[in-house]
Amino acid sequence: MSLSGRVLHAETTTTTHIALFPSAGMGHLTPFLRLAAFLVHHHCQLTLITINPSVSLAESRFVSRFLSAFPQVAHVQFDLLPFDPSTAKSNDPFFIQFEAIRSSAHLLSPLLASLSPRLSALVYDVSLISSVIPVTESLHLPNYVFFTSSARMFSFFAYFPAIASSSGALDSALLGDALKIPGIAPIPRSSIPPWLLIPNSLFAHMFSEDSPKLTKVNGVLINTFKGLEPEALDALHSRKHNEPEFPPVFGVGPLVPLEFEKEDQYSPAISKWLDEQLDGSVVYVSFGSRTALSRDQIREVGEGLVKSGFRFLWVVKDKKVDKEEDEGVEEVVGKELMELIKEKGLVVKHWVDQGEILGHRAIGGFVNHCGWNSVIEAAWHGVKMLGWPQHGDQKINAEVVEESGLGMWVKSWGWGGVELVNGDEIGEKVREMMESQTLEVKAGRVREEARKAAEIGGIREKMFKELIGKMEQEK
Ligand code: G50
């Protein structure tokens, strides 16, 4: 299905007016704007609320592309109150923005009240729950959380109140070696997002403040589908581990890359290179929009890729925030390695159109951090994965990747930045993934499931209809 704003414009009616409020980072913005495109397709009227300025250039460019493809979507910029970063609980610029938004969220009230026609619902980012709820309550406005990770991660988030200590961090005694949440495979202690074990960290604070408030939420949207996460979705739907007043969950995925995302600045050079490669022969390597590996680790990855013997397309990231990237590929990767790489691979250091890359016939495998959007995009194209979870929710997502058959991951590599994984080992695992027929067949099956979910009359459409129907009833 091609969703282009211009074609859909004529069909749009003004039945359900929804405001969308994404948070910082491409990992949050990307699924939100895809969701927006689908809601337009289902005849909703939309207002997109964005924070100005965004943390990264990739975000502001993405919003611009979206708005020019969907002129029928209203856009409101939300100005944050001054926020002193030295008081922040984290030094990560994206997480500082989370906090800044949370502490300004009360100002949303007049903004939302002024929108016309009257709003039917607010759909907002998972990182904002306890700061948004007082606002929607005072306006009697139904509120929907968009959970931008896996359903498995959501099961964990929803279960959090049962295992938190009074300081907000996870209670080690209640956690044990593995966390057993009814209805899903146990989560090993080593897969729990590390920040949640640190009292007063931003994530411990957000999880402990926000998860108990889920009972006040009208619904939760997750970019997933039954063929990928049958266990977690069944458990959530049958409410195996939920209180009766727990909100319904809508698996609205797969929210796949769309027309408006096409990036023409760099795509031609990448496509040209890929066009020259054999079918399924190239390994695509990217650790997402906000993970910078250490220089040493970057060089080991490069050596590993050369040693794997496969051709590769590698997106290198040296800084968390793209605005700060100031050095060329050669400086980051090193001159010597760059010479070796030239024969085998294409290395870039800028935002790429990942949807287009994964859809190219030359791509045979994908090495990535298991960020949820990358997992969904790999599933959509049936590209087998070697996962290397770096932070946060990514090991829990890696477990979904393994369980679904989409790919493999190496548990001994640990979280990003903790140990230096050497090139020989990386090369070996890349080769194992690329040569695995089993994974290829299984990833192909996941693709079939994704395509089935996305068909006309499929589960995704059914979920959107149910969601919008519920919003209309609540008006
Ligand atoms: C990053 C991180 C830790 C972490 C997560 C990260 C998630 C993702 C979903 O993205 O769990 C989520 C985000 C915010 C929130 C609840 C859930 O308040 O470093 O756990």
Q: What characteristics describe this protein?
A:
475 residues; alpha/beta; seven-stranded parallel β-sheet; six-stranded parallel β-sheet; globular; binds 3-(4-hydroxyphenyl)-1-(2,4,6-trihydroxyphenyl)propan-1-one
Work out the radius of gyration: 22 Å
Query: Which stretches of 5+ consecutive residues score pLDDT under 50?
Result: 5-13
Enumerate the strands of the largest sheet in spatial order, edge to edge or round the barrel. 3-2-1-4-5-8-9
- The helix/strand class is alpha/beta
Q: What's the total count of β strands?
A: 15
DSSP strand (E) fraction?
Answer: 5-15%
Q: Name the shape in a single word.
A: globular
- Main sheet overview: 7 strands, parallel
Distance between the termini: 30 Å
Q: What's the tally of helices?
A: 20
Mean pLDDT: 93
Helix content: 40-55%
Ligand species: 3-(4-hydroxyphenyl)-1-(2,4,6-trihydroxyphenyl)propan-1-one
Tell me what the structure shows.
- There is one protein chain.
- The chain is of the alpha/beta class.
- The protein is 43% helix and 14% strand.
- The strands form 3 sheets. It has a 7-stranded parallel beta sheet, sandwiched between helices. The protein has a 6-stranded parallel beta sheet with strand order 12-11-10-13-14-15, with helices on both faces. Strands 6-7 form a two-stranded antiparallel ribbon.
- 3-(4-hydroxyphenyl)-1-(2,4,6-trihydroxyphenyl)propan-1-one (G50) binds next to α7 and α9.
Give a short summary of the structure.
It is built from 20 helices and 15 strands.
Write the layout of secondary structure elements.
Layout: H1 5-9, E1 16-21, H2 26-41, E2 44-51, H3 57-69, E3 74-78, H4 93-104, H5 108-114, E4 121-125, H6 129-139, E5 143-147, H7 151-159, H8 172-175, E6 178-179, E7 187-188, H9 202-210, E8 219-222, H10 230-237, E9 249-251, H11 267-275, E10 282-286, H12 295-308, E11 311-315, H13 329-333, H14 335-344, E12 345-348, H15 354-358, E13 363-368, H16 372-381, E14 385-387, H17 394-404, E15 407-409, H18 423-435, H19 437-454, H20 459-474
Parallel strand pairs: 1-2, 1-4, 2-3, 4-5, 5-8, 8-9, 10-11, 10-13, 11-12, 13-14, 14-15
Antiparallel strand pairs: 6-7
Bound molecules: 3-(4-hydroxyphenyl)-1-(2,4,6-trihydroxyphenyl)propan-1-one.
